[in-house]
Design goal:
alpha+beta; binds D-MYO-inositol-1-phosphate; single chain; 32% helix; 265 residues; globular; 8 helices; 8-stranded mixed β-sheet; 5-stranded mixed β-sheet
Length: 265
Amino acid sequence: MSSPNPAIACRLEAARAVVHDAACLAMSMRPPPGGPAGKQKAAQDWLTETDGAVEAFIAERMKALFPDDGFQGEEGGVARAGQLRWVVDPIDGTSNYARGRSRWCVSLGLLDGDDPIAGVIEAPALGEVYTALRGHGAFLNGKRIQASPVTDPASAMIEMGWSNRVPKSVFMEKIDAIMDLGAMPRSGGSGALALADVACGRLDGYIEIVINLWDVAAALPLLAEAGARVSPFLRTGGLTGPATILAANPHIADALSKAVSIPLE
Ligand code: IPD
């Protein structure tokens, strides 16, 4: 394996540090268990004070470190353009965070043009940090990860993300297809962590019909480095708007893709 490009390796190191500080900030503001602390941007689409604070924190730090890099956030949109572009989801899994649950993360991805090249996902309440650099592996807490070896869909665990952007009939149809394969269904409320779960083998597949770039930007290099197969999210509208994603271990990817009618790359 060749040495990483120093300009990109240094960005990954910086991103790890910034995401860690941002995750500590989010932990310090984390609501206690209970009814949701936050408001709904739309039906069941939650926003907390922390989403804005964490995004502002990361935006400021990345601007100071890499002023020529582009920057895009879930809450603030595209702040700067650049060949290298950071894409942040300040809290992915806000609905969980707002209730004092543990399944949420800070997600920061780096794109070179239209190619996802590096990513950091930190889930501080779970004590987990995922990192990936294209061509140089994907890691969970510093240990190399890879997609699961499960070959039989009837032994698989497959997650489907839910949001109000998907008609109930479509959600039910896809869940039905997953269960018809014999797979065990899940829905955990954080698209970024679900994709990271596919990358590390805790899940065999993840699908979400309408998801955004900030939810997946850091996870895409993880999935590629971990040997997972992914649908062409970026080529089917994901660079500029919502699109569909399917990610799966390479052994069940074709069966899942066929069952839910989401083509693979
Ligand atoms: C949401 C989560 C959820 C997914 C939604 C996303 P947010 O992101 O990733 O799992 O199903 O599509 O919008 O709002 O918590 O950043």
